[in-house]
Amino acid sequence: MAAIILLFTWIGIQLDEMLAFQQPYMTALFALIGVFISIWQVIQSLMKMK
Question: Where are the domains of the chain?
């Protein structure tokens, strides 16, 4: 879970640097995407346990 969030945050940081945004828009966006993917994976694994 943490690995996914960290990976997506790192991708966002790289995009912010590449696109030269003054605010960390891509970092925030990709961090949120990573959180949603992680939550979705947890929900999917919990549903399989039933």
Answer: 2-45
Q: pTM score, two decimals? A: 0.87
Whats the size of the chain, residue-wise? 50
The encoded tokens of residue 46 equal 């919990």
Percent pLDDT > 70 in the chain is 100
First to last CA, the chain: 21
Q: How would residue 21 be classed by pLDDT, with cut points 50, 70 and 90?
A: confident
